[in-house]
């Protein structure tokens, strides 16, 4: 059964390398961005166990977003870009 679409903006498929930077900047995790919109993304990891509810996501081009986790499973999380809400 398909879930109803709840996103405010459609996401486009993506395959971008990224890095999660934890608050304080001392720990980072490599990740892959699998889909992307102006207000959020789906991000995959080896494991989401150590990923906190909020973090900064940096793309390989240097773009960064402050993120809040909206959903998670063992290898993927869906995030909302907090900085997109301010604009």
Ordered list of secondary-structure elements with their pairings:
Blueprint: E1 12-21, E2 28-37, E3 40-44, E4 54-59, E5 64-72, E6 76-81, H1 82-86
Antiparallel strand pairs: 1-2, 1-4, 2-3, 3-6, 4-5, 5-6
How would you characterize this protein structure?
This protein is mainly beta and 87 residues long. The chain has one domain: Thrombin, subunit H, CATH 2.40.10. The chain is built from 1 helix and 6 strands; from the N terminus they run ββββββα. The protein has a 6-stranded antiparallel barrel with strand order 1-2-3-6-5-4. It is globular, with a radius of gyration of 12 Å. The mean pLDDT is 87. Residues 5-83 form the PilZ domain. It comes from Peteryoungia aggregata LMG 23059. This is PilZ domain-containing protein.
CATH-derived topology:
Thrombin, subunit H
CATH class categorisation: Mainly Beta
Task: State the separation between the terminal residues, measured CA to CA.
Answer: 35 Å
What ranges have pLDDT less than 50 throughout 5 or more consecutive residues?
A: none
Tally of contiguous helical segments = 1
Order of helices and strands: EEEEEEH
Protein name: PilZ domain-containing protein
Organism: Peteryoungia aggregata LMG 23059
Domain PilZ: 5-83
InterPro entries: PilZ_domain (IPR009875)
């Amino acid at each position: 059964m398909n879930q109803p679409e709840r996103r405010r903006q459609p996401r486009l498929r993506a395959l971008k390398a990224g890095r999660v930077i934890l608050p304080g900047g001392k720990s980072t995790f490599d990740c892959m961005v699998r889909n992307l919109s102006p207000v959020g993304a789906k991000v995959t990891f080896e494991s989401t166990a150590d990923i906190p509810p909020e973090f900064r996501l940096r793309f390989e081009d240097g773009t960064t977003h402050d993120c809040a986790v909206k959903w998670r499973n063992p290898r993927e999380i869906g995030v909302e870009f907090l900085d997109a809400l301010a604009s």
